[in-house]
Amino acid sequence: MLLPYSLTDISVMDHKALLEHCVAVLDSFNADVQSVENHVNKYLKHYGIHNEDEQIFIVEVFSGCVRYLDIMSIIVKGFYARDGKNTLRSEQNLFIVLSYLALFRLDELEMANFRQFVRSQDINKMYKFLQFFFNEKSITTWMKDEWQKFYEHVFVQTKLVSPLRQWLPELSDMLQQMKEKIDNVTKPPKKALTNTEIKPFNITKPRPKSVPVPEPIPKMEKRKPPPDTLYREPSNIEKIERIRQENRRRAEERLMEASRKQFACANPEKSQKTKEKIQRILTEEQSKLDFDRPKTNKVPTFLMTPLSSRSTTSTRRNNQEVPVKMTAAAILREGFLYQQREAEEIKKLESLEAGAKDKSDFERWQSDMKRRDLESELADIERRRLEGKLSHEEAILARQNIVEENKQRVSEMKEETQKMMERYLEEKFKEEQQMKQLVEDTMQGHKNAKESKRKLKEYKQKIVAEVAEESRELMRRAIEEAEAEMRRRMELIHQIRAMEAVPAIRQKFVDLTATSGHGLLSEMSIVELRERLALLRNAEKENEEMKRDEILASKEAKDQLLLDTLETISKHRLEQTKAAAIKLESRKKGEPKKSSVQTEELSALQQRLQEKRQQRLQAQEGSRLAPNTQSAKRTKSLIDQKKNLEESRWKELEATRERTAQLIQQSYARSATRLNTMTSVT
Questions:
Q1: Sign, Cα dihedral of 247, 252, 255, 260
Q2: 12-27 vs 106-119: helix axis angle to the nearest 10?
Q3: What is the predicted pLDDT for the residue at 301?
Q4: From which residue to which does any coiled coil extend (predicted)?
């Protein structure tokens, strides 16, 4: 669509205003909130732009920038990544608008109007961006490849690359003019007429001042020519890229393998450790029902063994015992506990002497209630077990019905799959024909590769020459700056030496017995201050000795208290051990046998379970197929595959557990090393 807006007679200020409006409407646009048409209409209404030609220009430029934003974004991102690192990010919409005008509207605007748009902005900024954008090599190589990711090859070649290459000579002239303006290159002035020469008076000239001779500055060494490797791409990049792709492929395969086998270690059977935990939990729950159990320590193993083997058992126990260090707080806490228990026993005996009632009847009733609760709980467990088996048999029957339905569905799906395969083969044949044609077109495009390589080599040689010229100019400037710095340093050295030649009086006398003379009440000399400090030190030493004696006395009293408490604790522990051993023997003699639980409800459940089981077995017998040779071979191959798969899974599981054990062992070793380090430091 051509712009109906005439730009031939517009001043530079009007070009600048139009460009600023296009950038502003693009800055305030948010595609998630409102549409393109609503946003541009609100903008024109808000800023009072009523001229029809100006409205059409702003609408067309804004719509085109939004439509082809992917193309302009490639150019702007490449500019910021390479040459525009010091350019503000807030100006990227300005570059997008200029890129759109150069790519899609240059034939309509012509060079005069486009040059006015460029001149309305900062010349340094525009020169840097346009020099990057109007590079023929970049347009025909990486820009073209990036544009073809979003649009077809024909559109990119005919609508973007070819029109822009036609305008490149005139655009290059514009860039050259901008560069001359930046460098302040002016035309050579005309030769003027010679004026009358003025001769100075013949008077005595003053004697010139002597200038210090600076140190000689080393000359530059002759530069080596650039190596040949500068003009060809290094081979390491291709190797690194190939290795990176291979590593990525392996990582993806390992991730897929790990995701596929992450549940391969599941084992429905409970391990020995799990069974022990379940048994320990059940034992703890059962022990909670014993309300009158005395809270004593466990019976030592050497008291439960016969007298003949007690000596060997005690010897082994002594060898395996780990010494436990009792702290002062633990000793006092346990002693206080035994004192409380003694007080409770004395109080209980006093109440019995006063005529309190015996609780043997209550204990008998309590044991009967516990036995009844245990029987009801066992019956409930048996009922739940039978119900679980019954639901299992019903699930098996339902699964058999589902298998029959699935067989019928599979036969229907096979027929449909055969038809789809035929259609797929036809489409694949058509695609192969298209691919052959595409390969022929690609081979035709590779013939111009040699010409492109020659142009690339000439371009690199030009870059090397420019870099060498810039290096020589920089070195000349550096030499001039070094000479000026050397002169400044020589003058500074002369001034410092003159200042050092002036003598200075640095002698000062101090009287230690005299005061400072400020007129204060607490004013004293240094000698008096030293005497008072010595007296204070002596007083502090006496106080320290007195406190040390008091601390030693308190420690001796505390040690005596701990020894008495330990003696009391040892007596109580001995009595508790004997009482626990006697109680254990009595329990072993009077332990009752468990009785079986059987009710009418359980009998009915067992009968239903037997009926369902018979029904399932009859259904299996009816659906069983007669074996043949092919099915037997296929079954055998499936069994072998299953065994191999299980073996590989178990090996993977064992390797995983070994790695886990190694990691745990390493963490334990590190924690032990850290603990030893902390102990040695403290």
A1: negative
A2: 100
A3: 52
A4: 403-499, 526-556
